[in-house]
């Protein structure tokens, strides 16, 4: 069995969505003074590699704590979107790749944009799902769609059509994934367990793929 880490480390210097606060990490206790080490963390619920719950955009959407743990793990499929460059991930493209040719829980879009993590290019130009493609994906009983970019919609989008389509059908969104290029073309289990935040609209996750079970 192999476990592949698909998460970004949380640091004060990490990229955040424009307008979101950067994480703060302060020493709350030290070995010398208190006899133990403890850190105080201040961060957004959508910091780094994170999951969006329906409550992120929908007034009556499920919150993180209202979802069963089974919602955050299942069979995963990676779709190599790198040939698109900055072009949208269309329905025709997904069909050409054979996406969803068999029952699947999570679709992970490998855009290659994680290579730009930490630089200005990470914040724009990444390919995003078209609304038509998102509508097609939710026809199957999938649990979530993930991407190795800042967002599943364009950064300057005001109406967030893909977020609304997916979350409106209780399909989770996982953003800022890493290392999707290490995933096999075949079977793997994808996990993105959140913190158990009461009434949480989202949460940082330690996303991982389990190969060879």
From TrEMBL:
EC number(s) for this protein? 3.5.1.9
Instruction: Give GO terms: molecular function aspect only.
Output: arylformamidase activity; metal ion binding
For this protein, what reaction is catalysed? N-formyl-L-kynurenine + H2O = L-kynurenine + formate + H(+)
Protein's UniProt keywords contain Iron: no
Top-rank taxon, per record? Bacteria
- Keyword field: Hydrolase, Metal-binding, Tryptophan catabolism, Zinc
Pathway per the UniProt entry: Amino-acid degradation; L-tryptophan degradation via kynurenine pathway; L-kynurenine from L-tryptophan: step 2/2
Q: Which cofactor does it need?
A: Zn(2+)
GO annotation terms (biological process): L-tryptophan catabolic process to kynurenine
InterPro entries noted in UniProt: KFase/CYL, KFase_sf
One Pfam entry for this protein is: Cyclase
Query: What PANTHER family does this protein map onto?
Result: CYCLASE-LIKE PROTEIN 2
General function of this protein: Catalyzes the hydrolysis of N-formyl-L-kynurenine to L-kynurenine, the second step in the kynurenine pathway of tryptophan degradation.
Subunit description:
Homodimer.
Protein name in UniProt: Kynurenine formamidase
Q: Which organism is it from?
A: Desulfatibacillum alkenivorans DSM 16219
Q: What is the lineage of its organism?
A: Bacteria, Pseudomonadati, Thermodesulfobacteriota, Desulfobacteria, Desulfobacterales
């Amino acid at each position: 069995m192999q476990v592949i880490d698909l998460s970004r480390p949380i640091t004060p210097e990490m990229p955040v969505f424009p307008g979101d606060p950067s994480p703060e990490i302060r020493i709350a206790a030290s070995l010398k003074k208190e006899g133990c080490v403890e850190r105080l963390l201040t961060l957004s619920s959508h910091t780094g590699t994170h999951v969006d719950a329906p409550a992120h955009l929908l007034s009556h959407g499920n919150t993180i704590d209202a979802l069963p743990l089974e919602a955050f793990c299942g069979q995963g499929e990676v779709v190599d979107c790198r040939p698109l460059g900055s072009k949208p991930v269309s329905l025709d493209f997904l069909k050409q790749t054979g996406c969803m040719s068999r029952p699947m829980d999570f679709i992970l879009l490998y855009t290659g944009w994680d290579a730009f993590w930490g630089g200005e290019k990470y914040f724009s130009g990444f390919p995003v799902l078209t609304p038509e493609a998102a509508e097609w994906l939710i026809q199957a009983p999938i649990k979530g769609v993930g991407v190795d970019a800042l967002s599943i919609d364009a950064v300057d989008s005001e109406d967030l059509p893909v977020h609304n389509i997916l979350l409106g059908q209780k399909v989770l969104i996982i953003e800022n994934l890493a290392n999707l290029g290490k995933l096999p073309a075949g079977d793997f289990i994808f996990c993105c367990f959140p913190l158990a935040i009461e009434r949480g609209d989202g949460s940082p996750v330690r996303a991982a793929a389990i190969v060879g079970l």
